[in-house]
Specification:
Number of strands: 0
Order of helices and strands: HHHHHH
Largest sheet: none
Distance between the termini: 49 Å
Strand content: under 5%
Oligomer: single chain
Radius of gyration: 21 Å
Number of domains: 2
Helix content: 55-70%
Shape: elongated
Length: about 130
C-alpha cells in the first residue's frame, strides 16, 4: 500500500482518538467517518491496518526485541531442555508460552524478549 497522504494522516489523527469514547453512538459514527475518509482516498480499513503494520518503531538502547525469532526460539527450547529443574514455576510457564508463541510466528514484546534473554544468560552461566 502506498503511503497515506498528509491530509489523510491529519484527518485520521483527528478521528482515531474518538474511538475511545464512552458513547457507543459516537464510536460507531467515528468508524463510519474513518471508512468514508479512507474510501475517498481509494482505501479501506484493511489498507489502513496493513499500513500501520508497516510502520517501524524506534529501537531503544535497552530494547532487545530486535533479536531474530529463531534465536529466541532456540533460547526457549534450550531453557526447557536444559534448565527445567532450575526454573521457577512462573519461569517455566513463561518459557513454555514463549516457545508456543514463537512457534506460531508471534513476536515477543520487548519486556518478554528481555526476560527470556536474562533467563537464558543466567542459566547458561550455571
Amino acid at each position: 500500500m502506498a503511503d497515506l497522504s498528509p491530509e489523510l494522516n491529519v484527518r485520521l489523527q483527528r478521528l482515531i482518538p474518538k474511538l475511545s469514547s464512552e458513547a457507543t453512538g459516537e464510536v460507531i459514527a467515528t468508524v463510519e467517518a474513518i471508512k468514508r475518509t479512507l474510501d475517498k482516498a481509494g482505501l479501506d480499513l484493511h489498507d489502513l491496518a496493513a499500513r500501520l503494520s508497516e510502520v517501524s518503531r524506534p529501537v531503544h538502547q535497552n530494547d532487545k526485541s530486535h533479536i531474530e525469532h529463531p534465536g529466541l526460539l532456540l533460547m526457549a527450547r534450550w531453557l526447557l531442555g536444559n534448565s527445567f529443574s532450575r526454573l521457577t514455576h512462573k519461569e517455566i510457564g513463561f518459557v513454555q508460552n514463549v516457545e508456543k508463541n514463537l512457534t506460531k510466528g508471534r513476536p515477543l514484546s520487548p519486556n518478554q524478549t528481555n526476560w527470556l534473554r536474562d533467563l537464558y544468560v543466567a542459566q547458561k552461566a550455571n
